[in-house]
Amino acid sequence: MSANHHMPLPSLPCYPCPYNASCCAYGVTLSDEEAAAIEAEKGPGLVYKTRWGEWRTRIKNKRCALFRDGGCTIHDRSYYPTVCRGFPWTDSEGDRYEYDISICGEFEARPELVTIQRALPSRAAAAPREVETVSGD
Is this structure's pTM higher than 0.90? Predict the structure, then answer.
């Protein structure tokens, strides 16, 4: 759970997932440490570095390459990606996940989860806004 919020979050049926791991269809951003641990433990070729320098998991057969036989092969590992650990509640920095939460089928099955998720603190809402000053000259 993020240090940015204190309310307990409802548990989701992520492992095993009854929604065919729909969130695993896109791959995930990794920290340098997570990428190194995955390559060290699982071998090369499952992660790659984008031209922008971001580590990502590869996609194979329309799912993250670490998803096999109905589940994530690293779900119980210390290097399980922070993005996956927090999804769909929080992002890798512990702030509210700001993207498409409908990827998780449980949000369609339990619409009240959307309200709970949207009540989490948002980095965007907390960011100071620039105030435009108008000169009287």
Answer: no
